[in-house]
Amino acid sequence: MSANKRPLSPFMIGPYYRPQMTSVLSITHRATGAGLVVGTLLLVYWLAAAALGPEAYKHAQAILGSMLGQLLLFLWTWSLFYHMANGIRHLFWDAGCGLELKDAAKSGWWVVWSSVVLTFLCWLIAAP
Questions:
Q1: pLDDT tens-place values along the chain, 128 residues long
Q2: Which CATH architecture is the domain 21-126 placed in?
Q3: Measured between alpha carbons, how far is residue 14 from residues 17, 34, 61 in Å?
Q4: Structural domain boundaries of the chain?
Q5: Cα(21)–Cα(47) distance, rounded to whole angstroms?
Q6: Whole-prediction pTM value?
């Protein structure tokens, strides 16, 4: 029996497999879903701190107002818009629209750019 030279997994990065737009967006969709859970827990912490009184709220504001806290909130905002835009894309796919490879790539770029633009607009509008 000759040795099989084929890769064992289609997910091997390198000379065997080049990531495609649809696969990268699918993985990112799942990652942003997990990120939304973490961000929602952060939001619950902030709301609980507000309910617990001024000292707890002051502590939560110090954490969320820090550079790391602001970065996490920014990434949470981007995750929200990315997940929403990609969810809308999937609704169109469920209706049978945009399933061609060219259309899938075009809608993929729409998801990426719309999530970036919406995130920056949200932060510009919400900035004090």
A1: 556 676 556 555 556 667 788 889 999 999 999 999 999 999 999 999 999 999 999 999 999 999 999 999 999 999 999 999 999 999 999 999 999 999 999 999 999 999 999 999 999 999 77
A2: Up-down Bundle (1.20)
A3: 6, 26, 44
A4: 21-126
A5: 38
A6: 0.84
